[in-house]
Write a structure and sequence with these properties.
This protein has one domain: Macrophage Migration Inhibitory Factor (2-Layer Sandwich). The chain is of the alpha+beta class. The protein is built from two helices and four strands; from the N terminus they run E-H-E-E-E-H. The strands form two sheets. Strands 1-2 form a two-stranded parallel ribbon. Strands 3-4 form a two-stranded antiparallel ribbon. It comes from Anaerospora hongkongensis. This is 4-oxalocrotonate tautomerase. Pfam families: Tautomerase.
């Protein structure tokens, strides 16, 4: 069944809960399957694990 993968910054549990709910709802609007058919994978990347333009994101974005 459909797997939705999203990569981004670290989120709180409440933010993850909302993200999973909203992504599932959006996917169901296009793919007529029950919510239980969808799997959402959240991959968190802290700013010190991401490089943009040859620099760590941690060096570009203040905490």
């Amino acid at each position: 069944m459909p797997i939705i993968t999203i990569e981004g910054p670290c989120l709180s549990t409440d933010q993850k809960r909302q993200l999973v709910r909203d992504l599932t709802k959006a996917a169901r609007a296009v793919i007529p399957l029950p919510a239980e058919a969808f799997t959402v994978l959240i991959k968190e990347n802290s700013h010190d694990n991401v490089g943009v333009g040859g620099e760590l994101l941690a060096d570009k974005i203040p905490n």
